[in-house]
């Protein structure tokens, strides 16, 4: 990931951006941005992004080169490379600095007992948490605690947008 914001390009007072590469079989890990909405422009490859809102609402979108994506302020999301070539996309923010919070890092910095008890995480998962923030991962699955059901894939909504159009998703944001 290459980041451009006011920390390394001082003239950038109102825009921060990141150029992200996700290798085949990898993903941009679950994270959120505490400073502003995220706009994305997909340059190459194919992707699937799942966005999590409040009250258990989530939506999944598929993207390819030339598509535009949008994630509202502080909504958790992750992006999977669904193709056989590198996925390249831009993340853009109306902000003077780039900021994100990784779920992995947040869980690693929370007391282990609190995480393990509340999500009934296996020891394997607890040992895999990293206090240092990563940007992308190789996809790998962890077993859920035996008392939990196997995770089901979240039903997705496929939307395609012409270049220059905006992802509105009014049904996603309504209560």
How is this structure best summarized?
With 175 residues, the protein is α+β, with helices and mostly antiparallel strands. It has one domain: Jelly Rolls, CATH 2.60.120. It is built from 4 helices and 11 strands.
Quick tags:
six-stranded antiparallel β-sheet, alpha+beta, 175 residues, Jelly Rolls, globular
What would you say this structure looks like, in words?
With 175 residues, this protein is an alpha+beta fold. It has a single domain, classed as Jelly Rolls, CATH 2.60.120.10. Helix content is 14%, strand content 34%. The protein has helices at residues 103-109, 112-119, 123-128, 170-173; strands spanning 2-4, 16-22, 26-32, 38-44, 46-52, 58-64, 68-71, 76-81, 87-93, 101-102, 136-138. Strands 3, 5, 6, 8, 10 and 11 form a 6-stranded antiparallel β-sheet that branches. A 5-stranded antiparallel β-sheet has the order 1-2-9-4-7, with no helix packed on it. A hairpin with a 5-residue loop joins strand 5 (46-52) and strand 6 (58-64). The longest helix has 8 residues, at 112-119. The N and C termini lie far apart (35 Å). The relative contact order is 0.24. Residues 135-175 have low confidence and may be disordered.
